[in-house]
Amino acid sequence: MRKPKALIFEISRPGRQGYSLPDCDVPEKPLDQLLPEPLRRSAAPELPELSETEVTRHFTELSTRNYGVDTGFYPLGSCTMKYNPKVNEETAALPGFACLHPCQPEETVQGALELLYNLEQGLKALTGMERFTLQPAAGAHGELTGLMIIQAYHRHRDDHKRNKVLIPLSAHGTNPATVSMAGYEVVQVPCDERGLVDLDALKTVADDTIAALMLTNPSTLGLFEEEIVEMAEAVHEAGGLLYYDGANMNAIMGYTRPGDMGFDVVHLNIHKTFSTPHGGGGPGSGPVGVTGRLVPYLPVPLVDRQGDKYYFNYDSSRSIGKVHAFYGNFGVVVKAYTYLRMLGGDGLKQASEDAVLNANYLMNRLKKTYHLPYDRTCKHEFVLSARPEKKKGAGAGDIAKALLDRGFHPPTVYFPLIIEEALMVEPTETESKETLDAFVWAMEEIARDIDEDAEKVARGPYHTVVGRLDEVRAARSPVLSWQNKPAKK
Ligand SMILES: *Cc1c(COP(=O)(O)O)cnc(C)c1O
Prior knowledge:
This protein has a domain at 86-343: Aspartate Aminotransferase, domain 2 (3-Layer(aba) Sandwich). 37% of the residues lie in helices and 11% in strands. The chain contains 16 helices and twelve strands. It has a seven-stranded mixed sheet with strand order 1-7-6-5-4-2-3, sandwiched between helices. Strands 10-12-11 form a three-stranded antiparallel sheet, with helices on one face. The protein is globular. Bound molecules: pyridoxal-5'-phosphate (PLP). Pyridoxal-5'-phosphate binds next to helix 6.
């Protein structure tokens, strides 16, 4: 059903009100006693004047223009847009958690400390690490924290010539960005024809100038690095450490652990793997775990237990310091802990199984229509190439727009960089077969449309609120409120 739209854009009318307050029943102070003259407005603010009905309709209408996992399928590769169970919200909103103050004395927040402590035990069991900090607020923040720990470790050993970090060509964009930010030089390691890291190429660059190898396994191509043990040996023999970008843990929970593959440092994307909402800039959580020899470098404080008392432990002479105010994004941590406890070990394992099953089902159906450059069993995601479609006149970006017209959030496009016209699809475990089938039909229909009239597809979308945006300008010079004048160029 089409909703009737107001014929005019500006709906404010002088004198309309959305509230009514009772008359003041205490003596009013003169204004100059409340606010000094220079801080007072000289004229009343120009605010829209609207009734409560109009305000409610306006914001409800705006909220329907947002796309999220609660409104539809969201196969954004590498981002793990899985369903966020609503019970997570309930626990995080419990007054005993939500109304805490970070400066409260330890003996009054024992429950919160126990939760932090228990979540750490869970993450240790899943990854095979010795200890975790829960401070970092995102994956990229975890990466920086991890590299700072690695840097502190080498410096403490007076090993100052290590100025490089190895990264495979299939890496997520945050990896090279983090390496540069930590003051290291990026050295890219090529992939072989299987899409896996080229072990021989890795061995030739692994020398005594490398601080670390940064890797996600399975890779962003959704492929498991089968030679990870040999890779770890090569890096360790050269005196380097192994950093695990754990944003792709969704595929392997309960099956294998980065610690068992030889990794020394791990970050997890709690807002991906542990089902806390993300997008739009946060808040997220990117805990960092390390093996025994790196524990002294972790940020302070850690939560420890003495008898049945939990406490913040600041006792560390080699710590890199704090990387976040207080103890991290506590609300997000409560949600992640809820997810962990609701599923338990077997449930997490099943989540990974289903994520891999869904991805392989979708991959095998879509490869009949689209080009699949690395045709191997995938893990949680896979990458198609729209190169043939691009030649016909509509590429990955155009297919993404055509999906918007059909009510789907598109896959990640143009990434990873080693695949031309990449479409990176991650269905996650929380989607039904019916949803996956509907997505396949939409993709097949788009392929037929491109065969018939590629130019028409390339001019889409046709049914969205806005069409093709100037994405760079929208990011660089955003206009965040409506103004009754044209936006500045
Ligand atoms: C999402 C992601 C990151 C970055 O995580 P943020 O929380 O967005 O900073 C890093 N690596 C991989 C592989 C990712 O998918």
